[in-house]
Amino acid sequence: MEILRLNHLAQHFSWTRVYTTNRTQLPHPAKLFFCQAKQDGSLDLKLMAPTLLAAEKEEAKAVLTLFLKKQGLSNAIAARTINKSDDFIDHLVSRLHSKHKSRYLVGRELTTLEIRDALIPYLETLFEEHGNILIDVVENYPNPPMKEKAAAPISIPSPLMESKKMKAMSRVSEIDPAGKLRPHIVYLLELGMDIEQIKSITRRFPSFAYYSLEGKIKPVVEFLLELGVSKEDIPIILTKRPQLCGISLSENLKPTMKFLETLGVDKQQWAKVIYRFPALLTYSRQKVKASIDFLYEIGLSEENIGKILTRFPSIISYSVEDKLRPTANYFRSLGVDVGILLFRCPQNFGLSIDANLKPVTEFFLERGYTLEEVGTMISRYGALYTFSLVDNLIPKWEFFLTMDYPKSELVKFPQFFGYSLEERIKPRYARVKESRVRLLLNQVLSLSSSDFEKALKKKIKKMELDGDSSCSTKDVGTGKKGK
C-alpha cells in the first residue's frame, strides 16, 4: 500500500487528466517557458524574460509563505521551507504560464491578485491530499517524500473527524461482490475524474462519498450540461464545490438561479458563471441579498450589478461589513467613485487595506502625486492597486524616470503599470528613441505591433516633410516647424 501511495503521489505532479484538455504538458524544467500560439493553432515555447521570471518567483514564494502560515506554521518553519523549495516554486510559476499564456502573448503582466487566485486553489488541493506531509511534498518536489522522513506537522485534526474521513474515503474504492465500484464512483470516472481526485474531494468533504447517483449527483450533472457546461468542466466544478451535489435542484439551485437572474445575471452565461465560481449557488438567500443590497447602496444600477455578478460572481463571498464597506470607504477617501471602481475592477475589494491598498497610495504620494491625482489614476485604471509594489510598481517607476515623460503622463495613462517591463515597455521605448520621434505613452504601449510601427512611420514622415531632419523631439508632434 505504501508503494501505491508513493506512486499516486508522484503521479499527482504530472498534469492530471481533468486539467489537460488542449494543454501542452510542461515537464519539470531546468528553465521555465510559456506557450505562444502559432497561426496553425500549435504551440511554440518562448523563453521568459529573466526579470519577469524573477518577479513571478517572488510572488509565488509570497503566496506559498502566506498559505503555510495560514495552516499554522511559524514564520521560521515557513521561511525554512521556502528556502528548500526552489523546484516547487518553479513548478508554481510554470502553472501560471500554462493557465495565463494568453496574457503573456500581449505583454501584460499578471496582477498579485490573479497570481494568488491561480495558486491558492492548487495549494489547497495539495494540502487536502497530503495533509501533514505537505512540507515534505514541497521540499522534495518532484520526488515523493520517503515514509521514514519526519513531516512537519501542519495541523492536528480531531480523531473523530479523521475517522469520518477515512470511512468516507474507503467507500470510494470499495468493490462489491461482483467486483465493481459503487455506481456513483463509476459515473464520476466516466465523466473524466480519477480515483485520487474523488478521494481528494471526499477528504475535504466526506459527505460526497455518500451521495446517491440517481438522487444527487447525476441530476446535478445533467442540469449543468443542459446549461451549457462542457463535460470536461464538470470534474473541475465538482472539485471546487462538491456541495453542489447535495443541494436540491427544485428547492434550492433553480430558485437561487431565478433569484439571481432577477438581479441581472445573464441566464445565457450560467455555464461561465458556475465554472468561475460554483460556490455562488450554495450561498444562502440572506447572504446573497446582503451583498446585493450593498451594491445598490453604493449606487450601482440593477443592470451593472447583473454584469458584476456575471463577470465576477465571487464578489458575493466578500463580507459586507468586514471587507466591502471598509474598502469602499477607503477609496472614497481618495475621491474615487466607488460604484464605478467596483464595476470596473471588483477584485480590488478583496484586497487588504493595510497590506495592499495603503502602501500603493503612499508610494505615489511619496513621489510627488497629490491625493486627487492618485484617485484619478485608480479611477482610470482599476487594476492599479492589484499589482505588487516591490516587483511591479517600483521597477517600472524607476524606468519611467528615464523615459523623458512628465510625471503627469502616468496620471493620464496609469495602464503603463499593466505592461511587461522587459517584453513591452523597454523594447517599445527603444524603438521610439531610435526613430527620434515622440509618441504619447498611450501610443507607445497600447497599440498593436503593426499599428505601433505605422505610428512611428507617420511621425518620421511628418518630420521629413517638415524639412528638418535634425528636429528635436520637442518639435516633432506639433506638425509645424520652429514651434
TrEMBL record:
InterPro entries in UniProt: MTERF (IPR003690), MTERF_sf (IPR038538)
Keywords, ordered alphabetically: Transcription, Transcription regulation, Transcription termination, Transit peptide
One function term, GO molecular function aspect: nucleic acid binding
Keyword Transcription regulation on entry: yes
Superkingdom per UniProt: Eukaryota
A biological process from GO: DNA-templated transcription termination
Pfam families named in the record: mTERF (PF02536)
Keyword Transcription: yes
Coiled-coil region: none
Similarity comment: family membership: Belongs to the mTERF family.
PANTHER family: CGI-12 PROTEIN-RELATED, TRANSCRIPTION TERMINATION FACTOR MTERF5, CHLOROPLASTIC
Name of the protein described by the UniProt record: Transcription termination factor MTERF5, chloroplastic-like isoform X2
Originating organism: Senna tora
